[in-house]
Design brief:
148 residues; 6 helices; 4% strand; rod-shaped
């Protein structure tokens, strides 16, 4: 067993000796607790970059799923209900740097009500879902344009 010197203030040393406290086991226990805390923290922060990458991948995967869900709805809406004017408005909207968008009364409102199960859509925010919806609708418009 190793030997270590510990320095104590005189008043603390007097009190410890006055109560006949054995310093070695008390110091060993305190140091063991501190070492465990330091090791636990090191373990928690070890490879934190790897943990961040894994968490980012789960976010990216969820966003991709939302994008795909929106894209499928956009394709369905464009093929089944959208008017040419509504699709042209989508094309114009896609060129802007919008954050939120107020949807008026049109065929898209019904599709969004069905998707989000709400009674009326007034304003939507940019999201992977909305980006997918717009891109899906625009894919249909690009494909159909030569035939118009």
């Amino acid at each position: 067993m190793g030997k270590v010197t510990i320095y104590l203030p005189d008043s603390l040393e007097e009190r410890v000796r006055g109560h006949s406290i054995s310093m070695s086991p008390v110091c060993q226990k305190a140091l063991e607790e501190d070492v465990r805390k330091v090791e636990a923290k090191a373990k928690a922060t070890n490879d934190i970059v790897g943990v961040a990458e894994r968490l980012r991948a789960t976010r990216d995967e969820a966003e991709q799923e939302e994008y795909q869900r929106g894209r499928e709805l956009g394709v369905e809406w464009a093929r089944e209900s959208a008017t040419l004017g509504e699709l042209e408005n989508m094309e114009e909207l896609s060129r802007t740097n919008w954050v939120s968008w107020e949807i008026g009364e049109n065929t898209l409102t019904g599709y969004l009500e069905k998707e989000w199960n709400v009674s009326r859509i007034v304003r939507v925010k940019r999201s992977p879902f909305m980006n997918g919806l717009i891109n899906g609708a625009l894919d249909v418009l690009r494909e159909v344009n030569p035939h118009l």
